[in-house]
Structure formats: C-alpha cells, structure tokens
Amino acid sequence: MASMNVPPIHDSVLKLMLRGINVPNNTYRDVTLAGKTALITGSNSGIGLACAKLLSGLGLSRLIIAVRSTQKGEDVASVIRKVHANMNIDVWELDMLSYPSIQAFAQRCATTRLDIAILNVGIASGSVSKIDDSTGHEGTFQINYLSTALLAILLLPILKPKTPTEKPGRLTIVGSGMGLLSKFDNINATPLIPSCNAPFTGFVAAGERYALSKTLIMMLVKKLGETISADDVIINTVEPGFTSGTGLHRDYSATGKVAMVLLKKLVSRTPEQAAWTYVDAAAVKGEESHGGFIMFWKVYP
C-alpha cells in the first residue's frame, strides 16, 4: 500500500513541468510481458499509442486497443502488426461519453483474459465549459473522472487472478500533478457531483476544472486501494509529465493552442518518454504503489 507518510508536493505548475524534464527518464527494456493481455484506452495517438508500441516490444501476447474510432484503431494496429507479427491485436470500440458504450466494453472484456488495464483517455477543455448532451455533465468532469471511474470499477473483477498462482492484475489510471494543485472550492458542496458541472469561462478556470478532475482521480485510487486487496489488483495513478504530440489541448482556443505549442517546445517530454511512466506504473512498480500516485518515478500519497 502506498505510504501516506511521504511528504506531499507543493510546487507551482511551471515548477512541476521543469522537474518533469529534469528527472532522468527510465526505460525498462528487460521487462517481459509474455503471456499477458493488456488494454489501453485512447491508444490511437499520443502517449497511448507510444505505450502500445512499448508494451508490444516487451513481449506482450495480446493488446486490446480501445478507441472511439475503430478505423483509427485499425490503422494503429496495422502498423504494430508489421513489427510484431506474432502478437494478437484487437481493436474494440469505446466511447467515454457513453455509459452504454463503457458498459458494453466492460462486458466484452469479461469474456477474455485481462492482466493489465491502462486508462489513458483524458481531455482538457477549452476556455468555455460544455455540458455533454448524453450524460448531462461537463465534458472534462465526465471523461476524466465519471466515465473513467465507472470503467475502472467495472474492470476490477475482470482483472482479479483466476487461480491462486497468478499474479495480481494491474489497473493504472493516468493522472496529473495538476491534481495536487486543485483549489477544490466546491469540496463541501452537497451534493458534490452537480457542483462539478458549474459553468466556467477562461483559460485559468478551465485549468482548474482539469486539475479538479485529476484530484478526484487521486481520491478514487486511494479509496480503491483501501477497498481492493493488492493481492487481487494493484491499482495506481501516474503523472506522465507535460508532453508534446498529444491531443490533450485540442479544444483550446487558437491563442491557447499557440501558448501550448510554445510551452511544449521549452519543457515537454516526447510521447515515448511519457509512455515509459505508464510501463513503470503498470508493469514495474509493485504493491508499494497500490492506492498511490506515481510522479517522477516515485510513489507519493
């Protein structure tokens, strides 16, 4: 279980970014995933795609690419198959803005072996909040927390070992150091969920909503770690670092996108560098990370 005695971090956003690029990047070429089945959500681009390629290179037996557009997923699968012809690759549809899609996806997972699940899908809204018509919730809150929490909970029984000799399943949810910086002004709201749909405008307010969604992920992982035995599933959340080449900021305004491009030229990781943090969380870190947050290769409370 992750130690709650590790001192918390109180850095600024910029300081976190700078720490991220100054920490040496680990790689784990000697890790073997032979016989394992892994799924990665949002694995048709960015860090998810880079992670799919890394896992494939570590001897993974089967990869499930979970994406909203199966055509884009198939394009990715065809590229990976050219390098790893003996690995089984499936492309399954998953729409994180649809509860029926999430439930159907989990039911499909229940029909097969699953050892590792990396929940990578996330968004950062533009400067104006949007309520999703199908769920009635604000988009960032919906995708980054509500839908992710639902999928995580549905996958837990599927990830549990089926025999006493099997190792624990692995559930890694992509988090962010921004979750340490959230103001969480609505923490005492009753009920809490509707308050997370409050409209916002402006770049700063959008950033706060993103940070709040990641704070909630940390809280979810901590609670799951207290509820689920690490002998069944090791659950953690990981900060990949500020990364270029992703679609995270695709909904930003033109000005916001320009700012992100300039910032990423100065302090960003590559998708492959960030993807190694996923490998670390999902295949290297052990019981010490259960219920914890991994950043800069270390487990934090």
UniProtKB/TrEMBL annotation:
Gene Ontology MF terms: oxidoreductase activity
InterPro entries: NAD(P)-bd_dom_sf, SDR_fam
Domain of life: Eukaryota
Keywords, comma-separated and alphabetical: Oxidoreductase
Protein name according to UniProt: Short-chain dehydrogenase/reductase
Organism of provenance: Neocucurbitaria cava
Classification lineage: Eukaryota, Fungi, Dikarya, Ascomycota, Pezizomycotina
